[in-house]
TrEMBL record:
Disordered: annotated span: 187-213
Domain annotation DUF7587: ranges: 25-174
Protein name per Swiss-Prot or TrEMBL: DUF7587 domain-containing protein
Organism: Paracoccidioides brasiliensis
InterPro entries recorded: DUF7587
Acidic residues composition bias: residue spans: 187-200
Compositionally biased intervals (Basic and acidic residues): 201-213
């Protein structure tokens, strides 16, 4: 994989000897319902139980509704669907290019407080925080055996993961704000920037086995 040459070194320490379980990027703005909270991490808008065991047909139906509700919230309102409840998921892009493109698109539209959060989860994070659960959208739609509605554009969600309920603060490695007047990532002096110091270390993307929700 290519080095992350587009990003500055990560201020949140990352042990290069650790197994990287997940590497991705989340886009947030003033309208996002899932929010980063300093010292806590990123919280989904809802703590509703997510039936991942799929032990019954009812649980299949609930999970279908939850995932479609979340994807609905990332798109313009479909005319034939009722409003969905707040989502228990947090959208994260699998690659930097998609997150950067989405952040620039939002900033160009004049949306405020646009930022990309770098999410990196290691094996030790999994051991410390317990299972950090995330779902790959295309695989979820496939194993739920649900016909994909026309209003879901797979090009938009083909590299999106849905995290369940929470991403711990330690796994949020860096915040890169985007300014609407210059459409470039930056962040010196930003009030939400991290206090931790740059490590000065370069590292690589995780392998491929690895929003306004």
């Amino acid at each position: 994989m290519e080095p992350l040459v587009s990003l500055p070194p990560s201020p949140q320490p990352l042990d290069l000897n650790e197994r990287l379980v997940f590497n991705g990027y989340r886009v947030e703005d003033e309208r996002s319902r899932a929010k980063y909270v300093s010292g806590q991490g990123i919280h989904a808008a809802s703590k509703e139980e997510v039936p991942l065991a799929l032990a019954s047909n009812h649980e299949y139906m609930v999970l279908q509704y939850q995932i479609l509700g979340h994807l609905h919230g990332r798109r313009p309102q479909p005319p034939d669907l009722p409003p969905f409840e707040p989502s228990p998921f947090i959208s994260v892009f699998a690659d930097w290019a998609s997150a950067d493109h989405e952040a620039r698109r939002r900033a160009e539209r004049g949306i405020q407080n646009v930022a990309v959060y770098h999410i990196a989860i290691t094996g030790s994070d999994m051991r410390e925080y317990g299972p950090i659960v995330f779902i790959f959208v295309p695989e979820a739609l496939e194993w739920l055996n649900y016909p994909v509605p026309e209003w879901i554009h797979l090009d938009d969600v083909g590299n999106v993961y849905l995290f369940v309920h929470h991403i711990p603060s330690r796994c949020v490695r860096r915040r890169l704000p985007y300014w609407s007047n210059c459409i470039e990532p930056g962040g010196d002096g930003d009030e939400d920037s991290y206090d931790s110091q740059d490590t000065g270390e370069d590292w690589h993307d995780a392998e491929d086995n690895n929003t306004h929700r």
